[in-house]
Design brief:
Blueprint (H helix, E strand, L loop, with lengths): L14 H9 L2 E7 L6 H11 L5 E4 L4 H13 L1 H4 L6 E3 L8 E5 L8 E5 L3 E6 L2 E6 L11 H9 L4 E3 L7 E5 L2 E5 L13 E8 L5 E6 L6 E3 L6
Parallel strand pairs: 1-2, 2-3, 7-8, 8-10
Antiparallel strand pairs: 1-11, 4-5, 6-7, 9-10, 11-12, 12-13
Length: about 220
């Protein structure tokens, strides 16, 4: 269960759960981005994958929806139940760097602030995972900037958003994944998310899912930007 408190690393979750994730031999990460105020779209993904995922990574442009999620979870057990024990967030170009959320510890103060980094790193299954929104990495020219940033942070996986186009590829030893937008997709795609499956000493696997109120179903993106 997620504590709904932000660790000093700016990951949302307890230090115990963050360390537990780091030591796992196998892990499943739900990757979502670009909800742009569509809280329900985020919930569609979480209701299907949240309870069975070890972490949620949100790659920006919709941190207001993450703040809504955390605030609701303080008082709604059914929302708390679909949140993974670890949440990583990154600031998008349409996000602020501070967001008020309901204080899980007390009514005084009633709200506290989440601090939102431009990028961060998670560790699990022997791998370091770089995640960011991507608006500062020249994404419309390709993934070279994201690849470079991941290498600079000693990571082998890079997660990002911004383009609203789901895609995944290997580049110079870095596995890059954009889950697409869960609300405003582009390039003829449907609203989507991604599930990243990791095992120690194995190549990562990624499955993309179309999101809808009726449920999520796998799809294979044609774009490889």
């Amino acid at each position: 269960m997620n504590t709904l408190l932000q660790d000093e690393s700016l990951i949302i979750g307890s230090q115990e759960e963050i360390q537990k994730l780091k030591k796992k031999e196998a892990a499943k990460l739900l990757v979502v981005s670009d909800s742009h105020g569509s809280y329900q779209s985020l919930l569609f993904a979480l209701r299907q994958f949240g309870a069975v995922s070890d972490a949620l990574v949100f790659c920006g442009d919709g941190i207001c929806d993450i703040a809504h999620l955390v605030s609701d979870a303080v008082e709604q057990p059914e929302i708390q139940a679909i949140i993974p024990p670890v949440i990583g967030v990154a600031e998008g170009n349409n996000d602020a760097d501070l967001y008020p959320v309901r204080n899980v510890l007390s009514d005084n103060p009633y709200y506290v602030e989440l601090k939102i980094p431009v990028f961060n790193v998670l560790e699990t299954c022997g791998q370091r995972i770089f995640f960011t929104h991507g608006h500062k990495n020249s994404l419309y020219l390709g993934t070279a900037g994201i690849t470079y940033a991941a290498k600079e942070n000693n990571c082998t996986i890079a997660l990002y958003g911004h383009t609203h186009i789901a895609c995944g590829k290997q580049r110079e030893g870095i596995f890059t994944v954009n889950p697409g937008s869960c609300y405003k997709p582009r390039a003829g795609q449907r609203p989507s998310c991604a599930v990243l499956e990791l095992k120690k000493n194995s190549e990562p696997a990624c499955i993309f899912y179309e999101i809808s109120a009726a449920g999520c179903k796998p799809f294979f993106p044609e774009r490889t930007l």
